[in-house]
Amino acid sequence: MTASSSGDQFSNVFTLFFTVLGCAVGTGNLWRFPRIVAQEAGADGGGAFLLQWILFLCIWSIPLIIGEYAVGKNTRVGIAQSFKSLGGESHIWMGIFMTVVATWIGFYYAVVTGWCWFYLVYVVLNPLPTKPEEAMAVWNTFQDSPWRVIAFLAVVIVAMAICWKGIKILERANAVLVPTLLSLIIGTVIWAFTLPGAGAGLKFMFTPDWRQFLNPTGWINALSQNAWDTSAGYGAVLTYSVYARSRDPAVKLGILTPIVNNTISLICGMLIFSISFSLLDKYVATPEAKLEILKNAGPASTGLTFMWLPLMYSSVGPGRILAIIFFLALSAAALSSLLGLIELPLRPLIDSGLFGSRREPALAIVTFGLLAFGLPSALSLNFLVNQDMVWGLGLILSGLFFSVLIIKFGVARFREELINLPPSDDPDASNDWKVGKWWEYVMKFLIPVQVAVLIGWWVIYAPLSSGDPQWWNPFKSTSLATVLLQWGLTAACCMGINKFIEHRQRTVPWMPAFIRPYLEQALFQTQVDTEQPSADAESLPEMNNDTQLTQLEEETEG
Question: What is the rounded radius of gyration, in angstroms, for the C-alpha atoms of the chain?
C-alpha cells in the first residue's frame, strides 16, 4: 500500500516544508548542537568545528536531502521498500539499517522530549533558579527522581495519540508550532545579545582553534551533527515526501530545508553561549574555566541548555512568563521531531500489508518498541549518552547506504529521471530548479570518500589519542568498541533478514501456527505487491478498477 493510495497527502508545499522542518528543528538545535560545539571547542574557541559543520552542510546534507525528496516522491513507499524498488532485493538490508538507526534515535529522543516537558511544568509551578548551583541542583534532582520516567511515558502516550490520526494532524500542528518556536528563538537571541559579557561568548564560539582540525573526532562529529540537525540520511525526509504531491519541488526543498535548519542551530548556539558566558562572568573569569563548566553540565554536556536557559530568564522582569512560553514551544517542537522519528518505522509496517490498510496495529507495535527500548535511556544518562554516540555516528553509515542506493540505480539516470524532470505543459507539474552534474560527483565519489576517510581516521586515532585503556571494552558507554559492536550486530541482523527474504519459502514451518500466517503475509505478500512499478496518486484509482474488473471476470468464468 502506498501513501497515495490511502489518500494521505500534504495539502500544499508549505505544510510539507514546515512538517519536514518541524521534524528537524527541535532539541537537536537547542540541546544537541550547543553541547557538541562545547565538547569540540579548543582552548581558543569553537570556530574550527563550525567551519567543519558548514562544509558538511554543503557536501553532505544538501545532496542527500535532495535525493531523499526525489526517492519518496517517486516510489511512494518507505525506506526499505524504496531500496528494493531502486536497488533490487539484495539492497533491502541497507534500507532496514537506516530505519533501525533512526528508530534507535527515536527511542532516546522521546526521553529528551520528556525533559522539555518536565522543565515546562517546572517553570510553571516553581520560581526560576537564580544561581548556577541552583540550576544544576534542579537538573540533578530531576535526573535522580521518578519524574524522568513519568515524563517519558507521558510523551509516548501523547505522541501515539497524535500519530493515530495520520499525516493531516501533523501538518496542521507544525504549521503553527514551528513558526512560533522560530519567533521565540529569534526574539530571545536578540535580547541575549544585549547582556553584559555576551560578546565574549560569541567571540569564543566563532574563534577557531586551528589545532582542532587535526582531531578526527571534531570532523566526524561535525558530519554526524549535520545529519542529526538536518535529518540527512535519517530517511525522515524520504518518509515525509512519500506524502508529497507530484508537483512539490524536490530540489528547492532539498536546499532550503537544511539551510534554514542549520541557520536555526547557529542562532541557538549563539543564544546558549551568550547566556552562559554572561552569567558565568559573576563566578569565573577565564574562557577556559567557563568552557570547563559547560562541558561538565551533565554527562557529555547533556544538561547544558536546560541549566542555562532558566537562569537567563530569571534575570529579567517577565522572565518566568517568557520561560513558560519558550519551554512550551520547545516541548512542542521536540514532540514534532519525535513524530517524524515514529513515522519512520511506522511507514514500512504499513507498506508491508500485514494489517491491510489499517494504521493502528502498526502503531501499537511501534509504541511497544518505544516503551521497551526507550526506558533504559530514561533510567540512565550514561546509557542515553551511549545511544546518542552510537546512533548519531550511525547516521554517517545511513548516508553512505543511501548514496550506494543511488549509485546502484545510476547517478546520471537518477538525476535525469527522478530529479530533473522534463518540461511539461501540465499546470500540476513541478516547477523546480535543475541539478547540475556536481550532484552526481558528490553522490558517487565525495560521500563514500568522506565516510571511508573519516571513519577510518577515527577508528585508528581514537584509541591512540584518548589514553583510555578501556577503548576495547564494548560495555563502556563511550568506547570505540561499543560503537563498532552495535553497528556490526545491527548490520548482521539486517543482512540476515535480507537473506531470508531473498531465499524465502512460501511457508515458515518453524514458526508457531498462530503466528505463521501473519509472518508469511508480512514477508511474502509485500514482495509480490511491490513487484509492480510505483504509481502516482492519479493512476491508482484506474489500477484498482482494473484489478477489481479482472477479479470479477475470473469469478464470472468460474
Answer: 24
- pLDDT score of 69: 93
pTM comes to: 0.81
The pLDDT score that the predictor gives to residue 531 is 38
Biggest CA–CA distance in the chain, Å, is 90
CA distance 426 to 511: 52
Q: Give the residue among 282, 309, 280, 287 at the shortest CA–CA distance from 203.
A: 287
Helix 13-24 crosses helix 319-351 at what angle (to 10 degrees)?
110
- C-alpha closest to that of 498 among 95, 13, 107, 29: 95
Report how far residue 511's alpha carbon sits from residue 254's, in angstroms, rounded to the nearest whole number: 44
More confident residue, 395 or 184: 395
Angle, alpha carbons 528-99-452 (nearest 5°): 115
Asked whether 487 and 455 are in contact (CB, 8 A), the reply is no
Q: Which of 54, 19, 28, 56 is nearest to 229 (CA)?
A: 28
- What's the mean pLDDT in 32-54? 91
- Cell numbers that stand for 184 in this block: 521565540
Residues 6+ apart with CB under 8 A from 535: 2, 4, 76, 543
DSSP assignment of 513-557: TTTHHHHHIIIIIHHHHTTSPP--TTTHHHHHHHHHHHHHHHHHH
| Grid coordinates belonging to 55 | 562544509
Q: How far apart are CA 62 and CA 56, in angstroms?
A: 9
Q: What is the DSSP letter of 44?
A: S
* CB environment 101-112: b (16+ within 10 A), e (fewer): bbbbbbbbbbbb
Cα(474)–Cα(547) distance, integer angstroms: 53
Top pLDDT among 175 and 206 is at 206
CA–CA gap between residue 219 and residue 168 (Å, rounded): 39
pLDDT, mean of residues 388-399: 92
- Separation CA 536–CA 526 (nearest Å): 18
Q: Give 90-105 pLDDT, tens digit per residue.
A: 999 999 999 999 999 9
